[in-house]
Amino acid sequence: MIKASRCLHRVAGLACLWLLLCGLSGCGKTPTASASDAVGCVWKVTHPNSRGALWICGSIHVLRSQDWPLAPAYDEAYRQSTQLTFELPAGAAEGPGMAQSLQRLGFVAADQPLLQKRLSPGVWQQLQQWCQRRGQDIEGYARMRPWLVALMVANGEYAALGAKAALGVEQHFEQRAKADGKPMEGLESVEFQLGLFTELSKAEEEELLAQSLSEAASAAEQFSDMLRFWKSGDLKGLHALIHREAQEHPKLFDRLIVQRNRRWATQLMEPLMQGKTTMVLVGAGHMGGEPDGLLALLRAGGCQMQALRVPSPKFGVATP
Description:
Layout: H1 4-11, H2 14-22, E1 42-46, E2 53-59, H3 72-80, E3 83-86, H4 96-106, H5 115-118, H6 121-134, H7 146-160, H8 169-180, E4 184-186, H9 190-198, H10 202-214, H11 219-231, H12 235-248, H13 250-273, E5 277-283, H14 294-300, E6 304-307
Parallel strand pairs: 2-5, 3-4, 3-5
Antiparallel strand pairs: 1-2, 1-6
Helix pairs in contact: 2-7, 4-9, 6-10, 7-10, 12-13, 13-14
C-alpha cells in the first residue's frame, strides 16, 4: 500500500499541476529556452492609489536541475519584496495536516470497493499497463480515489523526467525567504486544494484518470512545450495550451482556474492597497487570458502592470 505520507510532495500544488502538466495536449517536440533566452513570467502590478506593488511571478511547481537558473526577473522581484505569497502556506505539503486531509479525501474506507471495481475494464487495463511500464505495484493504488490516481500518474511521468517539487520555484523561494526572515503566507489551504477534486462526479473522475493515462506517453513533449512558453514569458502560449483543455473539461477548468483566479485577485488587492510590496508565486497558467486570467482581473480592478525584463543572465537565480 502506498502510504499518504509518501505521496505528499508529489501532490503539492496539485490543482495547477493537473492543468499545467497532466492536462496539456502535446504540441510536438520543441526545445526549451536557454538561460540566455529566459525572461520569465514576472509582472509588476501597481495601483494609482497605493505605493505598494505586487510582483506576480509565474511558477512551475516541479522542475529538473537542467531547468535552472531562473530568469533574472525572479531574483529582482524577490529583492524588491518585503513578503511572499504562495498558493499554499510555506511547508504546508510537509505537515501532518496534509497527510490527514489526503487520507480522508483521497482514499476510500476499508468497507468500500477497491479501485478495480470502481473503474471500467478499459481504464483498469490502461492503469495496469502504466504500472507495468513504470514498475509500480498497482495494489498500492487500490484504495485511492480515481482523481488522486490520475494525479499520481501525471506526477509519476514527470518524476521519470527528473522533475520534482524539490527543484520547483516555490521550494527555492520558501527556503530563501525563511533564511532571510521574510514573512510568507498562502492564498489557499491544503484542505481547499484537495477539495477541488472531491466534487467531481464518478464519470468525471474516471475521465480524468483515462486522460492522464492516455497522455502519459507524451509527457516529455508536453513538458518541453510548457517550459518553452514559461521561460520566454509567453503567457498567450501558456493560456492557449490550457484553453484547449477547457473546451474538453469546462467545469474542471472553471473550478481549477477561473474561480480561483477571481478569489486570488480579491485577496491580493488587500496588501497592494495597504502599500505592501509582495512577491506572489502562482502557477504560470493562472496569469494570462481574458477576461479571467489573474492579470486581467487585477487590471479590471484598476491596476497598472508591466512585464519585468532583466536581460543579463549572469544575475539569474542560481541552481538550488
